[in-house]
Amino acid sequence: MMVLFSRMKDVLFLLFLPCFCSAQPAPPLLRFSVFLDPSNIVYLRWDHDEQEMMSFELQVHTTGWVAFGFSPHGELPGSDVVIGGVFPNGSIYFSVS
């Protein structure tokens, strides 16, 4: 697993896919969590339900965007990446590659 993020500024961007992508209520508390950097700035929380649906929350100070990737070997080539952010007008975008 790897995390790419922009220079840290004043905006706190929360990536919480189930809330942004569906009208379903938010899942219960996310049971698992870890800081992904030695300075304890990038915080990841996650959980799964009985159907193995994964929920993630990524908290990080950004300039308005964040990228989050999954890789079997911890490297960018061959990884699955989600990029999300907030446009200056406040609208949210996500892209999966």
UniProtKB/TrEMBL annotation:
The keyword Signal applies. Keywords: Signal. One of its GO terms (cellular component) is extracellular space. Residues 1-23 form the signal peptide. One of its GO terms (molecular function) is dopamine beta-monooxygenase activity. Pfam families: DOMON. It comes from the Eukaryota. GO terms for biological process: dopamine catabolic process; norepinephrine biosynthetic process; octopamine biosynthetic process. Residues 40-97 form the DOMON domain. This is MOXD2 protein. The lineage of its organism: Eukaryota, Metazoa, Chordata, Craniata, Vertebrata.
